[in-house]
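Students often ask why we bother encoding 3D structure as a string. The short answer is that it lets us treat folding as translation between two languages. Here is a chain of 296 residues written in the first language.
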Amino acid sequence: MKLIDGKKTAQDISNELKQEVDKYTAQGHRPPHLVAVLVGNDPASTYYVRSKEKKAKKAGYTSEVIYLDEKTSEQELLQLVNQLNNDTAIDGFIVQLPLPKHIDEHKILMAIAPEKDIDGFHPENIGRMVAQLPGFLPATPYGILELINRYQIPTEGKKAVVIGRSLIVGRPLSILLSQKRPGGNASVCVAHSRTKNISELTKDADIVVTAIGKAHFLKADMVKDGVVIIDAGINEVPDSTRPKGYKLVGDVDFDEVSKKASYITPVPGGVGPMTIAMLLKNTLQAYENNYLKKKN
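And here it is in the second language, the structure alphabet:
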């Protein structure tokens, strides 16, 4: 069994991005600028945006977080998104999800200019992904694809099962794995909460990706020997020995499934760090598209 180290891979990508940024700044250009918008004070979301800001600065970017009150109206948030769309000093930005219930997430995501949509959630970028045209790939699927390629995991002609059909992970990843591209050319099946006898699918799969948010859902008796496991789930389970009273685990029963896997991602330290790394990669792409091309 080989552990897929997302933390190390993300650091490698960060170092590569910093080299690119240093090259551009040495030529007299400003560094890429990334903004995150956080509405409310959800602890997990606050941690994520601060982590993004910290990692962006380590890669040589300028970065900031715009904190908004929980009671911020949908109209006020839309006005801010419009301002960010039109600010040429900002290369890309995200609006951290989830948003308070009184705000329509779909409406906000639709309002983000596609050329600054570094999360890759705008329908235009999703459409470009499907058509294999230039655009921004959703960060988590992009990170999974990067792990597969960097670890040289064979996918061509392999049977892959993606458990989960969200627009954030499952659905875009199933498309990327099936496309004619490095890390693609697999025969992909998407399973979800309405799928009957999921284990019949996973037992036959060469690659299993989980993205459903159910702790330890995938058991050892559900997979075959030599399977590749990509665990994109993250769940809190009670643990009185931890300072916070819980620990983070994935959708996979790691201790048992790892005994049968050829490759497996841990949680934490697997897919999670890659999401931020690919967000930064998308930001550099936006910077090159929106800023450098106008300078040259």
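Translate back mentally: The chain is about 40% helix and 15% strand. Keep this in mind for the problem set.
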